[in-house]
From TrEMBL:
Organism of derivation: Lojkania enalia
Sorted UniProt keywords: Disulfide bond, Hydrolase, Protease
PROSITE patterns xrefs: PEPTIDASE_A1
Name by which UniProt lists this protein: Acid protease
Domain Peptidase A1: 2-357
Amino acid sequence: MYTTTISIGNPPTRFRAQVDTSWGPVFVPSVNCENVPCWMHYENMYNSGNSSTYSPNGTACQVGYWGQYGLWTKGNISQDNIHIGNMEVRNQEFEEVTHWIPSELEREDLYDTVLGLSLRDIDDRWTTFRAPSLFQSMVRQQLLKDGLFALRLSRTDAEVGELILGGIPEEIKSAGLIDIPLTRNFIEERSNDQGGGPDDKDDDIMRFYASGGWQVAIRNITVIGQGWSSSPIAILPKNYTAVISTSFPWIGVPFEVADEINQKLGLEEFMNAVNCDKRRTLPNITFHLGPSSKEIILTPWDYLIEVYNDARQELTCASPFWGREEEDLRGFLILGSPFLNGLYSVWDADRETLSFANRIGHDGDVAGVLG
C-alpha cells in the first residue's frame, strides 16, 4: 500500500490517501458517520460546516473500493475543493461516508481516502457514485503542465516512493523512455450479474480493473537463466491485455502460468516463501509489452515480495504470481505493485501511452528495461 496526503475544504482537512492508478471517485469519512469502523478515522473526518467552499448535494450513493481486499461505503454526495501539493482542484464531487464497511482483511486503518489516478471512469456494480478521478479533474481544469504523471513505488518500507503530477523527474530523459501504447479493451457485464456488493460471490474483479484505462497489450512472459535455460522460456499460452495497477498487490495470471513459474522458483503455490538469500539463484522474468513486444525485466529483487516471518524472526521472500481461472480473467492479466516496484513509470493521458525507465538494481546496477 502506497499513501500520500491530500486535503479537502477551506480551511483544509487532511486525509491519508492511498495512491491508486485504478481508482476514480473520492470518498472520505464524515463527522456524520453512523457506524463504529468509521470512527477509526476520527482524527481525519470531513465536516462540511467548517469549509467555506463546500456546496451541498445530498444525493445518496455507495462505493465499492477493491483496494487490497475490499472496502464498501454508503453516504451522500458533496462538493468542495481538494488540495494536492500546491494544486487546488475546484468543485470536486466526493462521497461523505456515513457507513464504512471494510472486509475482514482490509487494512483500511492505514488510509482515509484514495487519490484516484484512473484515466477513465471506473465500472463497478456496487458503486453508484460516478465521478471523475482527481487526475481526470486536474487534466480537465488544466492544472498540470502536461496531462501525465510520473511514479516510482518504493520496493521496501525503508525507501520513499515518488509521485510527480504534470511532469517527469529531471534525471529521467524522455528519449530514454520505453513507450507502450494503451489499448481500449473493455469487459462487458455478464448477463447473470445481479448487483454486486459485500456479500457477492461473483465479484468480477477484472471488469473493475479493466475499466480504469491504464492497460497495454502483453505478448508473452519469458524466463531465462539460473538453472532454467540459456534461451528464454515462453510462459503465456496466448496474447492478453495487461492492466497496470498500483493497488493490486500481486501479479494476476492464469493458474497454469502461476503454477509453472512458482514451481520453477521452488515454491508450491502463490505466496509461499523462500529464504531471501536464495534470490541470487533465481531467474529474471521478462514481460513483453505492446505491439512490438517491448521488454521489461524483473529481477528476483523486484518480483519477490519481502515478508517478515514473526515465528521464525527472519525475512522471507514470497511469490507474487496469483492464479485465476481463464474464465474469470476474461482476456486480461493484472500487473500490480510487484511489477512496478522501483521502476520509473510515466502515465500519459495526452499521448495515451505508458512509458518505463530503467530501475536501479539491488546493488546499484541498472536493470529493468531493455527496449
